[in-house]
Structure formats: structure tokens, C-alpha cells
Amino acid sequence: MTVEDIIVAPELTPSLATAQATLQQTLAIIDLLSANATTPTTLELQRTVARQNRILQAYLARLKQQTRRTAFIARSTKAQTADARREVDGLLLQLQNLYYEQRHLLGEIAACEDYPHAFRELPLVDEEEYLEHFPEHEELDESALMERRINHEQEERDRIDEERKELVKRKDQLVLENTRRKEVVKKMDEKLESWVDGLAKLEEELKVAL
């Protein structure tokens, strides 16, 4: 498996190409020095080594700049992950509130089902409050008004249940996205640390070689 097979993120491709070019340039300098190790150092050889070293320094400068850019991308991804985590936490809190409200409503429904005349004991919105929201129902008789109030209560409970389902769905999506982003950040951090370590080692070896 090659490095290209491991590193597939588009934002890392330029850094990988520069790192490979830097490695090839370093090997070229080492080969040049090795080939002339047993011969006297000539002015032409010094010029050639100096020229090749300037090329290497240019590659190193570019690699350092690209590494900084990659680090910035990693920090940005971490910030996005943190935002997603906060959103998930907020959704979880809303979901807990909905679960509490649902348990409360289910408890009230169960209590009502235990009575033969449950419609008179349903925990409906107070009649006066209901008519404030629906003044057009003031002229209805008691039976019709009770039916409208019961239907209204059912609609409200259905609405709450739909909101709960949507929150659960949104939470699951955010958890998956959060997990994916954390994996991306982790891999980028590992690659950055590996490159930085490799760059430091390369610079030390060049200092010794030159």
C-alpha cells in the first residue's frame, strides 16, 4: 500500500506532493555528495551542491507553508465538530423535555382510560382558555364543544409526537456527522504530527550531511 492509498483527503494532496518532491531532492543531494565523497571538492561541485540545496530549501519552505494551511483546516474542522456537538447537546435536551411531556401525557391518558366517563375527566385545556383561542366555538352546545376540545387535545399531542420524532432523527444525523468529523480530525492530526516529526528529522539529517 502506497502513501497515496492511505492519504486520500484532497486538502492533503498538495502537501503530499511537496513532501515527495522534497524527499527526492534530498536523495539527489545525498547521491551527489556520495558520488564525490572520495574526490577533491571542486568549485563546480560546490556550486552544484549549493544550487541543489537552494531548491531543497524552496521545497522545505513550501512544505512548511502547506503544513500550516493543513493545520488551519484541522482547527477549522475541530471547531465545526464542537459546534455540531453543542447542537446535539441542545437537541438532546429538547428531546428529554419532549419525552418528559410525552410521559406526562401518556400518564394522563392512562388515568383517563381507567374511568367509565373519561371524557369528563380528560386533562384538556380549560374551557375558558380554549374559547379564548377559538372564539368561533362559543355558540356550540356542550357536546359539540367537548368533541372539539378533545380533537384539539389529540392534535396537540400528535404535534408533540411529530416534533419528538423529528428531533430524534436530527439528533441521529448530527451524531453520525459528529463522529465522521472527529475521525477526520483525528486522522489529520496523526498525519500532521507524522509530517512535522519527519520534517524535523529531515532538517537534522541535512544539517549533518551539509
From TrEMBL:
Pfam family for this entry, one: FmiP_Thoc5
Domain of life of the source: Eukaryota
Cellular component, GO annotation: THO complex part of transcription export complex
Keywords: Coiled coil, Nucleus
Molecular functions per Gene Ontology: mRNA binding
Main location: nucleus
UniProt xrefs under InterPro entries: THO_Thoc5
Compartments where found: Nucleus
Signal peptide: none
Coiled coil spans: 143-205
Biological process, per Gene Ontology: mRNA export from nucleus
Family per record: Belongs to the THOC5 family.
PANTHER family the UniProt entry points to: FMS INTERACTING PROTEIN, THO COMPLEX SUBUNIT 5 HOMOLOG
Protein's name according to its UniProt entry: THO complex subunit 5
Taxonomic source organism: Lithohypha guttulata
Highest classification ranks of the organism: Eukaryota, Fungi, Dikarya, Ascomycota, Pezizomycotina
